[in-house]
Amino acid sequence: MNFDVDSLKVLRERTGAGMMDCRKALVQADGEIEAAQALIREWGLNEVEKRAQRKTSEGCVAVARRDGRIALAALACETDFVARNQAFIDLAKTLADRAIDSFNVGSDPGLTADLGRRMKENIVLKGIALLEVGEGDLSDYYVHGDGKIAAAVKAAPRISIQDSARAMAAIHDLCLQVAAKKPLYGTSAEVPKEVLSAKEADYRTEMESDPKLAGKPQAMIQGILAGRMEKWLSESCLLEQWFIKADKLTVGQYLAGIVASGGPELEALEFRRLAIGDD
Question: Which value, in Å, is the radius of gyration of the alpha carbons in the chain?
């Protein structure tokens, strides 16, 4: 035998082909894994590549919390049946926990290949999100009922001991807000200039091709553009979104109201969100 057991294992993980087919390919390839993989592909036996073409719209987002970090891991699959399988759920939890120690957890395809082979589905790590929680920060996370959406929020509040419960309640509300409304930024001031410029250019292109706006005064065009940009910012920035628990308040106004009534002020706000089906 001109190959070792490790080579056989690697080839099976990469291709999902049967043990005997992998052995045959390695023998013909004189133990060279890349050449053996090419033979498996040539023979039409590369199940991993075939599965990789299939849509992954089901799955779950797992959360791990320890050592001053909160990690989210979005693991996707093809069917709800597999998404509800305990082995799949456990793998998502393992990936989230490993992300606490190493953010590069997704760089090893072997983490999902074995389960994909056993379940005969395309199983993909869609994303990892990590939130560093410093000393004195307060944080919380929320996983939506079906497990497909998770959000984590941290803040460095100015609080006294008696304010901590109120601060935690506010942070939990922000978790719900982030999960439901998927903001991209905290405030409009945080949006990079290049992002604003690209969004404005997109809107200008749309408006130039809109026959209803043909021949309209430039002042009117600018006003419409400004309105669209304002709407996009109000949807994309957390503190400028309408608060889900009081639709006549923005999130910023909700937090300001807490301060005005003698409650804690939340500073240095950060959040993370992952969801299955967002891509």
Answer: 25
Burial class for 249, CB neighbours closer than 10 Å (0-12, 13-18, 19+): middle
Q: Which residue has the tokens 């290949």?
A: 113
Distance in angstroms (rounded) separating the CA atoms of residues 129 and 153: 12
What does the alpha-carbon distance between residue 11 and residue 44 come to, in Å, rounded to a whole number? 15
Alpha helices in the chain (DSSP H): 5-15, 19-28, 33-42, 47-52, 80-83, 86-101, 110-119, 164-181, 193-208, 218-236, 251-260
- Other C-beta atoms within 10 Å of 29: how many? 20
The amino acid sitting at 258 is I
* Three-state secondary structure call for residue 222: helix
Question: In whole angstroms, what is the distance from residue 32 CA to residue 173 CA?
Answer: 55
Which residue reads 């803040």 in tokens? Answer: 155
The pTM score is 0.81
**For 119-174, what is each residue's pLDDT tens digit?**
888 999 999 999 999 888 999 999 998 899 999 999 987 766 557 888 999 999 99
Decide if pLDDT at 2 tops 90. Answer: no
Q: Domains, the chain, ranges and CATH?
A: 5-52 (1.10.8.10), 55-132 (3.30.479.20)
DSSP collapsed to 3 states, 43-95 = CCCCHHHHHHCCCCCEEEEEEEEECCEEEEEEEEECCHHHHCCHHHHHHHHHH
Say what angle helices 5-15 and 33-42 make with each other, to 10 degrees: 40
Distances from the Cα of 158 to the Cα of 131, 162, 172, 262, angstroms:
20, 12, 17, 11
